[in-house]
From TrEMBL:
Name of this protein: Glucose-6-phosphate 1-dehydrogenase
GO biological process: glucose metabolic process; pentose-phosphate shunt, oxidative branch
Family: Belongs to the glucose-6-phosphate dehydrogenase family.
Source organism phylogeny: Bacteria, Pseudomonadati, Pseudomonadota, Alphaproteobacteria, Rhodobacterales
Gene: zwf
Cited InterPro entries: G6P_DH, G6P_DH_AS, G6P_DH_C, G6P_DH_NAD-bd, NAD(P)-bd_dom_sf
Top class in the EC scheme: oxidoreductase
A molecular function (GO) term: glucose-6-phosphate dehydrogenase activity
Record's function text: Catalyzes the oxidation of glucose 6-phosphate to 6-phosphogluconolactone.
Keyword Nuclease in annotation: no
Signal sequence residues: none
Residues reported in the UniProt entry to bind NADP(+): G12, G13, T14, G15, D16, L17, A18, R19, R46, K142
Pathway: Carbohydrate degradation; pentose phosphate pathway; D-ribulose 5-phosphate from D-glucose 6-phosphate (oxidative stage): step 1/3
Length: 477
């Protein structure tokens, strides 16, 4: 279904995110027939360039990151909708020209695909030069601040120019198909919700493991680390969707109110429940410190922690979170590990068994539910756990494998004016309020992250975090 007609301006239109994600995503939506024919995409950045120059860049980006077009004519028609205006985010240059490009009778969205230092300047100029209308939206990328104080300052700054209903703070994890599916599974079935609490759930594991290192983003990353880069936003959002109470409706503020309650119910994490790691060198690469060109860096490229949501539903059920770079495999999954059956009628030799619901975000999006059955054969009542496997690609056919990229979904939601999958200002602040004391704590202690081998599951101490509780992490595979 096509969305309403729109003009989308991408500040930072020549940048990495625009080339890798936003522009290829828009092209795929165009191919899917969702972009109305008169819709326009205008790249805006400091570099002087004309429309043709930008179109060449977009064509190259789509060839490289977009998987190409089924019909080459499609890319040409898409590019006809693409233009460019050079603007100076901190000065007057280009704003009048940009305004003249925009139409009056359609949705106007401004995507700030730039560092947070420019958010305020852009917002101010959109107002000052009369580009922002009552229905315009701005989209802001992470990092949304570096800590609570800077996030508050950003929220205050944006609020001078835009209403909260016009601000779309992106966390691309919320655009992932399986993440949305989490809500469908929890609230669309009767099977799970009655068991979704401390009485039946032993613990929850959230793992986002990456095989890549910090790549070319060493400067940004060394100043952030895994806690700011991943936990404060992506893992926090996953935790919220798992832990929240059922919202009354699938509507922006219903959902976001419930997520906020979860964040506010999180206990401070004790220092001995946090493990930080930093990857070392191997024969293929020189290690984290060489990647970020800081031989004394104490920034973590891995973090694991044990969190508690102190409310009636979750009291006593730990949430173990871990994320890291240069690990054994690229796997993101949430595992809900249920308690053992209260009594085994099969005796001690049948062993201990419990159900695990694993939701795989990537790769092979899908879910498995481990159920205990009798091991086939005449050998008596021996039990074995087998997965009920629902890989989307198998269960839903080609459509299941054809999962749209998170950015495609989210940009279209901006045009539709649906904020459900975007973070509200108070949510972001609450998340920083939880992570700040952990970061301040290790900075004050002069904590040095534990080294770990590239291709491993992270530092040994992370395994111990669960062993001490008589539990173990699921394999990263
Ligand atoms: C980004 C982080 O937000 O998410 C990156 O800044 C990380 O460091 C990326 O690699 C992971 O996203 P995905 O979609 O590849 O899991």
């Amino acid at each position: 279904i096509p969305v309403d007609s729109f003009d989308l301006v991408i500040f930072g239109g020549t940048g990495d995110l625009a080339r890798r994600k936003i522009l290829p995503g828009l092209f795929r939506r165009f191919c899917a027939g969702q972009m109305p024919p008169e819709a326009q995409i205008v790249g805006a950045a400091r570099t002087e360039m004309d429309d043709a120059g930008f179109r060449d860049m977009v064509r190259a980006a789509i060839d490289e990151f977009g998987g190409g077009a089924e019909d080459p004519g499609q890319l040409d028609s898409f590019l006809e909708r693409v233009g460019y205006v050079a603007v100076d985010a901190k000065g007057d240059g280009g704003w009048k020209a940009l305004k003249d490009r925009l139409r009056d009778d359609c949705v106007r969205a401004f995507y700030f695909s730039v560092g947070p230092a420019l958010f305020g300047d852009l917002a101010e100029r959109l107002r000052a030069f009369g580009l922002a209308t009552e229905t315009s939206r701005i989209v802001v990328e992470k990092p949304f601040g570096h800590d609570l104080e800077s996030a508050r300052a950003l929220n205050r700054e944006l609020a001078q120019y835009f209403d909260e209903t016009q601000i779309y703070r992106i966390d691309h994890y919320l655009g992932k198909e399986t993440v949305q599916n989490l809500m469908a599974v929890r609230f669309g079935n009767v099977l799970f919700e009655p068991l979704w609490n401390a009485q039946f759930v032993d613990h929850i594991q959230i793992t986002v493991a990456e095989t890549v290192g910090v790549g070319g983003r060493g400067g940004y990353y060394d100043d952030s680390g895994a806690m700011r880069d991943m936990v404060q936003n992506h893992l926090m959002q996953l935790l919220c969707l798992i832990a929240m109470e059922p919202p009354a409706q699938f509507e922006p503020d219903s959902v976001r109110d419930e997520k906020l309650k979860v964040i506010r119910a999180l206990d401070p994490v004790e220092p001995h429940h946090i493990v930080r790691g930093q990857y070392g060198a191997d024969e293929k690469q020189p290690g984290y410190r060489a990647h970020v060109e800081n031989e004394r860096s104490r920034t973590e490229s891995f973090v694991a922690l044990k969190a508690h949501v102190s409310n009636w539903r979750w009291a006593g059920t730990p949430f173990y979170l871990r994320t890291g770079k240069m690990l054994r495999a690229r796997t993101s999954e949430i595992a809900v590990v249920f308690k053992d059956a209260p009594h085994s009628i099969f005796g001690a030799e049948a062993g201990r068994h419990n159900n695990v619901l694993a939701i795989r975000l990537q790769p092979n999006e899908g879910m498995t539910l481990d159920v205990t059955i009798k091991e086939p054969g005449p050998g008596g009542m021996r039990l074995v756990d087998v997965p009920l496997d629902m890989t989307f690609a198998d269960a839903l056919g080609p459509d299941g494998a054809n999962v749209p990229d998170a950015y495609e979904r989210l940009v279209m939601d901006v045009i539709r004016g649906n904020q459900t999958l975007f973070m509200r200002g108070d949510e972001v602040e609450a998340a920083w309020a939880w992570t700040d004391p952990m970061i301040d704590g290790w900075e004050a202690r002069g904590d040095v992250p534990k080294p770990y081998d590239p291709g491993s599951s992270g530092p040994e101490d992370a395994l111990m975090l669960l062993h001490r509780d008589g539990r173990r992490w699921r394999d990263i595979k």
